[in-house]
């Protein structure tokens, strides 16, 4: 999971809510969706009520940026350009291989996910400081296996591993 949308809950949702100025209960409901759409519209983003890497970057929430196979957009284009790839903005198998190679050659976990640690090493965003990288991770006591981490949808140490759905 590297996007936030209605029906999800967890630490990343709470961080988004705090930034949007809505009650931060950690559950992405109608008020969060409404506030997000308003922000997106006001800032020239696709006003779809779904927060992904481009929205997180616009909000300054770099600790929530997580790129993986299937992700697309301007942030992916920046990544591809930095890796010397054709920048089509679509994170596919070729991008994943280049990411894993880069991570392996630069002392990072070669998991193919691009979070703040990899983005910081690449120097893509000056705003990604060691503090931001630290905020993107969960402490070991909070790292209980979740559906997302068990399914390989987020690195185990990432705050994304706390995401759960709450609507059926």
Automatic annotation (TrEMBL):
It holds the Pfam family PG_binding_1. Residues 22-59, 84-122 form the Peptidoglycan binding-like domain. It comes from Ancylobacter oerskovii. The lineage of its organism: Bacteria, Pseudomonadati, Pseudomonadota, Alphaproteobacteria, Hyphomicrobiales. This is Peptidoglycan-binding protein. SUPFAM superfamilies: PGBD-like. It comes from the Bacteria.
